[in-house]
């Protein structure tokens, strides 16, 4: 149901006068979409009680592993996913979950092997294609990333990450009209998340549509005031309009939220003394 549009030549320099504010999107990752498991101590305790009652249930380890992952307890998550796989070597969900933990821990080789295994076990598992595609995207393997996001979309995924990430690839190659379509789809699937709005806003800005870009960045902030990227993007519009004092305040807010966010740091340096 999706039109195929290859990335031909990725002209990464095509984007930006908009500086380095491209949407990273990493925060929209999830542990194989296991929504029932949260990372609270209470939930982990409840899941541990389930495992004590049914120690040979691979699903119980898989769900607790996801909870550990959400809590940032990655080594414990790995142990649970290892156990889930030992109990059920054909669990494609456990392989995909473990792959994401390997990604978070910086072991990209093991992550790739687990995504490959998940896809081998279930070639229609959209989550694994999306995870592997993001692994490829971050490694600069853009053609392979595009194919994986495209495959997930052709499988009729309802996961907004597939559209958001493919939109980032279109955006990076200067194909902003295609990017706008993908970001719009990501927004329709996850209207409460800021990332689609940030991505779409940057493509609007690249096309000279400052009004719609500003509206998207403000919506992103309204949805979640804790995302540094949204404030830096808003500041970028203020800066382009010559409203340097307002830009300085928004850049400062972005830097406060994420002291390592380079566009915020560079924006503060450019507008210093105006806030």
From TrEMBL:
Pfam families: TPR_1, TPR_11, TPR_2, TPR_8
InterPro entries, A to Z: TPR-like_helical_dom_sf, TPR_2, TPR_rpt, Ycf3
Extent of the TPR repeats: 58-91, 92-125, 126-159, 160-193, 194-227, 228-261
Keyword Nucleus assigned: no
Key word Iron-sulfur present: no
Signal sequence region: 1-19
Keywords: Repeat, Signal, TPR repeat
Protein name: Tetratricopeptide repeat protein
Source organism: Chelativorans salis
């Amino acid at each position: 149901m999706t039109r195929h549009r290859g990335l031909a030549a990725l002209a990464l320099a095509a984007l930006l006068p908009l500086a380095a504010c491209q949407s990273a999107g990493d925060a929209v990752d999830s542990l194989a979409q296991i929504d029932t498991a949260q990372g609270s101590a209470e939930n982990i305790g409840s899941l541990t009680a389930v495992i004590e009652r049914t120690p040979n249930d691979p699903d119980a380890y898989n769900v607790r592993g996801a909870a550990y992952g959400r809590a940032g307890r990655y080594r414990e998550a790995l142990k649970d996913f290892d156990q889930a796989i030992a109990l059920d070597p054909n669990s494609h969900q456990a392989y995909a979950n473990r792959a994401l933990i390997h990604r978070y821990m910086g072991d990209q080789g093991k992550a790739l092997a687990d995504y490959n295994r998940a896809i081998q076990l279930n070639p229609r598992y959209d989550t694994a294609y999306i995870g592997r595609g993001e692994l490829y995207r971050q490694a600069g393997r853009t053609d392979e990333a595009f194919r994986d996001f495209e495959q997930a979309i052709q499988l009729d995924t309802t996961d907004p990450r597939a559209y958001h990430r493919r939109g980032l690839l279109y955006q990076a190659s200067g194909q902003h009209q295609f990017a706008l379509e993908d970001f719009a789809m990501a927004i329709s699937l996850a209207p409460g998340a800021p990332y689609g709005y940030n991505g779409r806003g940057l493509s609007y800005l690249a096309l000279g549509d400052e009004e719609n870009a500003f509206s998207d960045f403000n919506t992103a902030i309204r949805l979640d005031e804790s995302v540094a990227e949204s404030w830096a993007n808003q500041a970028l519009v203020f800066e382009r309009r010559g409203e340097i004092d307002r830009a300085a305040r928004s850049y400062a807010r972005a830097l406060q939220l994420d002291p390592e966010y380079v566009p915020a740091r560079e924006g503060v340096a450019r507008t210093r003394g105006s806030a």
